[in-house]
UniProtKB/TrEMBL annotation:
TM helices/strands, residue ranges: 37-61, 81-100, 121-145, 165-190, 197-216, 250-268
Domain of life of the source: Bacteria
Phylogenetic placement of the source organism: Bacteria, Bacillati, Actinomycetota, Actinomycetes, Streptosporangiales
Biological source species: Actinomadura macrotermitis
Transport recorded as keyword: no
A GO term from the CC aspect: plasma membrane
UniProt KW keywords: Membrane, Transmembrane, Transmembrane helix
Protein name: ABC transporter permease
GO molecular function: ABC-type transporter activity
UniProt xrefs under PANTHER family: INTEGRAL MEMBRANE PROTEIN-RELATED, MEMBRANE PROTEIN
């Protein structure tokens, strides 16, 4: 990730830097860097595309499905599956907004202009959160509405007025925002793009798969609290026996994110740029 701006501070020097000016600088950087657009576009294409493909596959096989299998499908099911495979891409954006600056060496220029490191990191996190939240809500609602158009051919479509559906769809944007923030924290800790992406991939994707193979009751309980399973609970209209309650799951994922960010802040202040 490369930035088109040369300094984060203002002409008045480090002492004249305000939080508002740091926010403005971070907004300029994130919207002028090409990787932001392409990463968000890739995430949108994957999530929306998979939602449509899953809805098509379901309607094509619906007549051959058992009543029990049909009963497991919710209006947000296509979106849930698509988010599971596409969420890591939004995590990549969170990684890039910080590791790109380590790669180019711009981090040293930025911290010279903004010597208060927590202020600099907070501004970057706020801008990232705002961008991903807006993009995530757009992706979430488009995924839902397009999949409903296809499910309607079997009279399986739902509406935002159905119990839990609006919360699930809106929760998609919140979930992606938290993923990006967690990935930002990982990027600060690891300070290397490839290494950070691998960590994010393992935490969000691999652990969720491994958790499904854990034996016994303890395994099933632990599986609910794994990051992607906890956070992904917000995407379901209702709680199932294998997941946490939607808001409870998102609360746990928020806690995980805050822990990662707290570690990132401590290391960011104590290490050389």
């Amino acid at each position: 990730m490369t930035a088109s701006t040369t300094a984060t501070g203002t002409a008045g020097g480090p002492g004249a830097t305000t939080f508002g000016s740091v926010l403005a600088s971070e907004w300029t950087k994130i919207r002028t860097v090409k990787s932001t657009f392409w990463t968000l576009l890739a995430g949108a294409v994957v999530v929306i595309g998979l939602s449509v493909l899953w809805a098509l596959a379901f309607t094509a096989s619906y007549d051959q499905m058992t009543p029990e299998d049909r009963a497991t499908v919710a209006p947000t099911s296509p979106m849930q599956i698509a988010f599971y495979f596409g969420m890591v891409i939004f995590g990549v954006l969170g990684v890039l907004v910080i590791t790109g600056e380590y790669t180019t060496g711009m981090i040293r220029t930025a911290l010279t202009a903004v010597p208060r490191r927590p202020q600099y990191l907070a501004a970057k996190a706020l801008v990232l959160a705002a961008v991903v939240l807006v993009a995530g809500e757009v992706v979430s609602f488009l995924s839902f509405f397009l999949s409903q158009l296809l499910l309607s051919s079997k009279d399986l479509d739902g509406s935002l007025g159905d119990p839990g559906v609006l919360r699930a769809v809106m929760g998609g944007g919140l979930y992606l925002m938290l993923i990006a923030l967690m990935a930002l924290g990982v990027g600060v800790i690891v300070r290397h793009t490839a290494g950070s992406v691998v960590v994010v991939f393992v935490v969000l994707f691999v652990l969720g798969i491994v958790g499904g193979f854990l034996p016994g009751e303890w395994g099933a309980t632990l599986n609910k609290y794994l990051p992607s399973n906890a956070g992904g609970a917000i995407l379901a209209p209702t709680q199932t026996g294998t997941t946490l309650a939607p808001w409870t799951g998102l609360a746990y994922f928020t806690l995980y994110t805050l822990v990662v960010l707290a570690v990132a802040v401590v290391l960011f202040e104590s290490r050389d740029a």
